[in-house]
């Protein structure tokens, strides 16, 4: 994973089931100032029993999409499942990025699962300490 200097732009989280360039959270991304975060996290891989091949397929698709974005000049922070610094959840990975870098805005697209949405709706209060706003955009795909 490349190192990033302090940022002032947006941190854009992309979920495993949102691998599309037409994603609302990517609609106004600035290649110079914004950072795309993608993370293979334990909470998402283990909240229910999944077939191992399904998890491998999702992680592979995420890695290919991240590489595609990087090749097109986007700044991507990709956290693999076996990364020793992996924080284990989406919220914790966003918080880790916020503590290591400085973003004015966290942008996510409305998730497909209610439990993930409930978690995201608590992020504004959790990330107030970083003086960043959290925006959950409608999924218009």
Keywords:
141 residues, alpha/beta, Rossmann fold, 5 helices, globular
Which strand-content bin applies to the residues?
15-25%
Instruction: Please bin the fraction of helical residues.
Output: 25-40%
Distance between the termini: 29 Å
Q: Kindly name the structural category.
A: alpha/beta
Regions with pLDDT < 50 over 5+ consecutive residues?
none
User: If you consult CATH, what is the topology?
Assistant: Rossmann fold
Number of beta-strand segments? 5
Topology as H/E string?
A: EEHHEHEHHE
3D architecture notes:
The chain has 141 residues and is α/β, with parallel strands linked by helices. The protein has one domain: Rossmann fold, CATH 3.40.50. A 5-stranded parallel sheet has the order 3-2-1-4-5, with helices on both faces.
Summarize the structure.
The protein is built from five helices and five strands, in the order ββααβαβααβ. The protein is an alpha/beta fold.
List the helices and strands and how they pair.
Layout: E1 10-13, E2 35-39, H1 42-46, H2 52-71, E3 76-79, H3 90-100, E4 105-109, H4 114-120, H5 123-127, E5 133-137
Parallel strand pairs: 1-2, 1-4, 2-3, 4-5
């Amino acid at each position: 994973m490349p190192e990033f200097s302090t940022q002032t732009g947006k941190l854009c989280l992309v979920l495993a089931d949102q691998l599309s360039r037409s994603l609302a959270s990517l609609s106004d991304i600035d290649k110079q100032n914004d950072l795309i975060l993608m993370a293979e996290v334990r909470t998402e891989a283990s909240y229910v029993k999944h077939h191992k091949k399904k998890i491998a397929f999702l992680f592979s698709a995420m890695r290919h999409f991240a590489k595609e974005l990087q090749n097109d000049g986007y700044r991507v922070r990709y956290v693999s499942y076996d990364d020793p610094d992996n924080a284990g959840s989406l919220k914790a990975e966003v918080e880790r990025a916020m503590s290591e870098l400085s973003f004015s805005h966290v942008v996510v697209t409305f998730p497909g699962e209610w439990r993930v949405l409930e978690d995201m709706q608590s992020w504004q209060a959790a990330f107030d300490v970083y003086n960043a706003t959290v925006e959950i955009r409608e999924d218009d795909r």
